[in-house]
Amino acid sequence: MSGHVFSRATAAGPPRVSHARGVQMFDEEGRRYLDAAGGAIVVGVGHGRGEVVAAMAEQAGAVAYAHGSVFTSEVLETYALELAEVLPVDDPRVYPVSGGSEAVETALKMARAYHLARGEDRSVVIGRVGAYHGNSRGALDVSGRPSLRRPYEPWLGHARHTSTPYEYRCPFPDSHPVGCGARQAEALEELITSVGPGQVAAFIAEPVAGAALGACVPPDDYWPAVAEVCRRHGVLVIADEVMTGFGRTGAWFGSDHWGLRPDLLTAGKGASSGYWPLGLAVASGPVHEAISTAGFVHGFTHSHHQVGAATGLAVLRRLREERLVEASADRGAQLAAEIVRSLGAHPNVGDVRGRGLLVGVEFVADRESREPFDRSLRVTERVVAAARELGLLVYSSTGCADGSRGDLVLLGPPLVVTSEEVTEIVDLLTRAVTSVLPPP
Ligand code: PMP
User: Fold this and answer.
1) Ligand 1 center from residue 383 Cα (angstroms)
2) Where are the stretches annotated Disordered (predicted)?
3) Are strands 349-355 and 407-411 parallel, antiparallel or unpaired?
4) What's the rounded Cα separation, in Å, for the pair 140 and 158?
């Protein structure tokens, strides 16, 4: 027989997962893994939540699929209503899709459709260097990671890229400790002006840079300055909250830390905690009004999915009732503090950063010069493998320094992680790091 899964696991013979509960996963051999990555920073409410599974089963039994161009439903409308109470978007209109990349594609099209509806032919979207927004073509184009873009470059090139607040390697180091927000905003404004007046449709960025740069928190003056530049030039702000949404950074959305009110917002991952492939593209009331008056031709077969909405609603209610956003802030502070205590003096640990339960640890060859390791040493991969050997799952990111060099691991356990589990995560991480990078 020749039927095989197109395997995404890099190691030969990946383990076969059998079940998972809370923060723990088990393979068919009975091995236990502490899931400090929430899969891919996805699982918020924890694995194996009966309440979520029951809501999904109930909805599937009532009606699983109804085409979005024909029907809405109680569950879809209730989900949108309850989301409106937590979304940082004015008068939000929610477009449910199947994942983060679809949400980004949808938001990009909404941005252009908005300007066209108002008689402006704006087509350029500005993203940021080092950013990750998904693997479909539009999302890849606004992403700024050379290693992912390189093979597909002939298909890309419509987007432009500006600098990213990455304080450990700040492109404007002379502006600190005050904060580089004003300089970043200036750089964005220069790019908008050089592209040409009335050409830029939107600026897309993660409020806290996640997968690509490893939990880079911008200085407090960044978002107010950048949002002001966008408003002044008629450029819509798209907050990509696929990773940072639904409590991950200790607030409902990353935007909340700075009072950012984006025109468009994308979510995924934590929206369903991984129980269903769910993404959300959210438009503000004014954006929605312009688009829907002109007619927005868009949709996917599985948009506005009934089971997806039931899953999202059940997850949202768990997050609220169990106060998991607050828990993320508390446990996240503990996680970062314990990592600093345990690994902060390690000669190859350059930076420990993050907000809430999104924490990045960047490894360097030299702490003084902040020189990254040569990528051929595969430090990240070896730390991830050593952690897995010890029964700890962490998320990896490489190429953080200049797109081709740099090593870091990202931690993002389910928000239900206990204080004892946080301590166990840090113990195992310390053992993994010191086994790969033994201190002198
Ligand atoms: N945007 C961000 C910020 C992400 O982190 C991701 C996934 N890592 C995506 C978009 C793409 O989401 P998906 O993989 O669900 O398509």
Assistant:
1) 23
2) 1-21
3) unpaired
4) 11
Closest residue to atom 15 of ligand 1, CA basis: 100
pLDDT at 352: 97
Ligand 1: which of 104, 141, 242 to mutate, most ligand atoms within 8 Å of CB? 242
Domain containing 330: what range? Answer: 17-48+323-436
CA of 23 to the centre of ligand 1 (A): 21
User: Is the domain of 220 the same as that of 339?
Assistant: no
Residues 153 and 294 both lie in one domain = yes
For the CA of 102, the closest atom of ligand 1 is 16
What confidence score (pLDDT) does residue 9 get? 64
Tell whether 129 is covered by a domain.
yes
Q: How many domains would you assign to the chain? A: 2
Can you state the percent helix, strand and coil of the chain, rounding each to 5?
40, 15, 40
Give residue 403's pLDDT band: very low, low, confident or very high (50, 70, 90). low
Q: What is the mean pLDDT of residues 357-361?
A: 97
Atom of ligand 1 lying closest to residue 269 CA: 15
Q: What is the mean pLDDT of residues 163-182?
A: 88
- Please tell me the predicted confidence (pLDDT) of residue 291: 96
DSSP string, 159-212: -EEE----GGG-S-GGGTTT-SHHHHHHHHHHHHHHH-TTTEEEEEE-SSB-TT
Asked whether residue 2 is domain-assigned, the answer is no
State the Cα–Cα distance between residues 264 and 284, nearest whole angstrom: 6
Per-residue pLDDT band at 175 (split at 50, 70, 90) = confident
Mean pLDDT on 370-387: 94
Q: Which of 321, 337, 370 is the last residue of a domain?
A: 321
Do residues 306 and 342 share a domain? Answer: no
pLDDT band with cut points at 50, 70 and 90 for residue 213: confident
Nearest CA to ligand 1 atom 7: 134
Instruction: Choose one of 292, 321, 350: the last residue of a domain.
Output: 321
Predicted pLDDT at 112: 98
* Dist. CA 2 → ligand 1 center (Å): 31
Domain membership of residue 378 (yes or no) is: yes
Residue nearest to atom 13 of ligand 1 (CA): 100
Query: Who has greater pLDDT, 49 or 146?
Result: 49
Tell me 437's DSSP state.
S
The CATH number of residue 27's host domain is 3.90.1150.10
Kind plus residue range of the DSSP H or E element containing 408: strand 407-411
Taking the CA of residue 211 as reference, the ligand 1 atom at the shortest distance is 5
Ligand 1 centre to CA of 128 (Å) is 15
Residues contacting ligand 1 via CB (< 6 Å): 99-101, 104, 132-134, 206, 210-211, 240, 242-243, 268
Q: Identify whether residues 177 and 312 lie together within a single domain.
A: yes
User: Ligand 1 mean position to 346 CA, how many Å?
Assistant: 31
Please state, in angstroms and rounded to a whole number, the distance separating the CA atoms of residues 278 and 275: 9
- Does residue 44 lie within any of the structural domains? yes
| ipTM value for the complex | 0.99
